[in-house]
Amino acid sequence: MSRILLVIDRVGYYVAGAYLVVASIALFALVPMAGWLVFGRYVLNASPTWVEASSLILMLVVTFGIAAYAVRTGEHLSIDFVRESFPKPVERAMRFACHVVLTVFGAWMATASWANVVSNWSRDIPLIHIPEGVRHIPLLVGGAGIAVFSLIHALKMIVLKDGEDAAS
Question: Is 166 inside a domain boundary?
Fold first, then answer.
């Protein structure tokens, strides 16, 4: 069981890398888009309408892609000093509980986002003429990543002898 879990964890390493690459590309695309928006608004006196709607989608890709990546690598926002002030068994239980809560939250986020993708797919985003459901895909993918990566951390705490859940 532990060997299978380690293989799954190693695959998670590469999947998290893909999250990082996609989020980085989205962030890289946002910079010239914002520049074009400012140039269009203040120099040409004609704002490009597609930039704002496109930028919002790219911001979702960046935010939720990095959130999933950070859960995998253990770099997500957390208040460690509270947990670390307790004795080791309590700290370990709190760390495990955090992974369980994040697993449930990520699964809920992915499920709710899937419902939004399906229910909004038939409508278009007015300025860029793509399905409204596209706005919810980054939440779906990010939530799934958060759920899976948190579940892997929790399972590693149960299965592995040393009980470490740090990302490798």
Answer: no
Rounded Cα gap, residues 107 and 100, in angstroms: 11
Q: Is residue 1 helix, strand or coil? A: coil
55 with 35: CB under 8 angstroms?
no
Q: Is residue 53 part of a domain?
A: yes
Domain count within the chain: 1
Q: Are 59 and 137 in contact (CB under 8 A)?
A: no
C-alpha 138/C-alpha 64 separation (Å) is 6
Sign of the dihedral through C-alpha 15, 21, 25, 27: positive
Strand, coil or helix: 2:
helix
Domain of residue 135 covers 2-159
User: For the segment 104-142, what is each residue's pLDDT rounded down to a tens digit?
Assistant: 999 999 999 999 999 999 999 988 999 999 999 999 999
Residue 55 lies in a domain: yes
